Recover the amino acids of this structure.
């Protein structure tokens, strides 16, 4: 039996359509299919209990896909399936991702009853001319209304996601997006740089010249502008893409960045337990059929060696502003730690990382080159 990880993730593989930039695994929401998926999820969790003691997790995260697209009865069932297998006394945070316009007062009240503490809304932009072009199924007023309704239902810990560098959102509109997000007074704002995923419609549109995306320098300017406006408004950039006011961090993601374990359920969900990694295959039909016939879902599993495991955790931890205590960081061998320290000293000379006592972290300049720092550390 593998001892309890601190975090549990459920991948809800349904959306009401496919956004043009997205390559997260999801299928079109269908009530009957979602019913079968819920039954399969319950079986997966029941089977996993014999292998992983996950009953005392501290954080739960319902992502996707769009968890809020489930109807009220199914949403309540999802929350019960998970909550009934956990010790409520241990839980510090339950997050659910939602798209603007998909949460009704009934769903919000069910979420409150079932212990949801945090809602993360995918706003992406407030530009009504851009949202339909992204194939989002909401407008800016839906984001405003959703935040208001969530507050009326008693939720205080609310987050908004924004995407920097969207076609049709030049710098002045990007500034307006950030200010509009701030005007809604969320606890948390995530700012993601637009990336072109190979299987997305954006990749095809880009190739055929239908859209243009910012070059690296322009993207950095968008991200710097976000940092400047959000930090001036009192938000703390506690991770490369994440800002919190009054230390209202996303504890679930913070655990993952700190290198702690997590277990995931649902198609495409990943798990990390010690040196073991597995990821369920991104196929709802295989997931359901396998569990309906009494077998675990098909998945890819590997045991990484200790040096890879330690390097992965180190690289994740460098994403967060608290940095890494290099004196106490786990390493596979004294040689591995010495190699990391040599690399860090070299990167410090280039202004990418800085040291305070035993703690090392990215400099503000270094956050722009976080991927480079990660690959240098990983290959040390
Ligand atoms: S961005 Fe979110 S809502 Fe849009 S398709 Fe991807 S998972 Fe679904």
């Amino acid at each position: 039996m593998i001892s309890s990880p601190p975090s549990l993730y459920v991948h809800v593989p349904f959306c009401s359509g496919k956004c043009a930039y997205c390559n997260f695994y999801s299928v079109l929401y269908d009530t009957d299919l979602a019913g079968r998926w819920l039954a399969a999820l319950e079986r997966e969790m029941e089977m996993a209990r014999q292998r992983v003691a996950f009953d005392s997790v501290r954080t739960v995260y319902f992502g996707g896909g769009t968890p809020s697209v489930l109807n009220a009865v199914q949403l309540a069932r999802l929350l019960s399936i998970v909550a009934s297998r956990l010790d409520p006394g241990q839980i510090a945070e339950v997050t659910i991702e939602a798209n603007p316009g998909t949460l009704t007062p009934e769903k919000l009240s069910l979420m409150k009853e079932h212990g949801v503490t945090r809602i993360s809304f995918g706003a992406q932009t407030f530009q009504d001319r851009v949202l339909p072009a992204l194939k989002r199924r909401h407008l800016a007023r839906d984001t405003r209304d959703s935040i208001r309704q969530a507050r009326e239902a008693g939720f205080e810990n609310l987050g908004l996601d924004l995407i920097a560098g969207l076609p049709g959102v030049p710098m002045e509109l990007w500034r307006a997006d950030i200010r509009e997000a701030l005007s809604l007074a969320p606890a948390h704002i995530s700012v993601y740089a637009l990336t072109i995923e190979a299987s997305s419609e954006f990749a095809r549109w880009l190739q055929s010249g239908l859209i243009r995306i910012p070059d690296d320098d322009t993207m950095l300017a968008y991200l710097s502008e976000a940092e400047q406006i959000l930090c001036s408004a009192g938000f703390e950039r506690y991770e490369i893409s994440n800002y919190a006011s009054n230390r209202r961090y996303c504890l679930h993601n913070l655990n993952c960045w700190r290198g702690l374990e997590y277990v995931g359920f649902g198609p495409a969900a990943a798990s990390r337990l010690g040196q073991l990694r597995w990821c369920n295959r991104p196929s709802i039909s295989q997931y359901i059929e396998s569990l309906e016939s009494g077998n675990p879902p098909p998945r890819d599993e590997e045991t990484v060696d200790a040096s890879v495991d330690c390097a992965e955790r180190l690289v994740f931890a460098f994403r967060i502003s608290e940095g890494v205590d290099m004196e106490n960081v786990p390493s596979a061998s004294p040689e591995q730690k010495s190699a990391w320290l040599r690399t860090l000293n070299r990167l410090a000379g280039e202004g990418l990382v800085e040291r305070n006592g035993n703690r090392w972290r990215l400099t503000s300049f270094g956050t722009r080159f976080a991927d480079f720092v990660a690959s240098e550390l990983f290959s040390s």
In short: The longest helix spans residues 31-49.
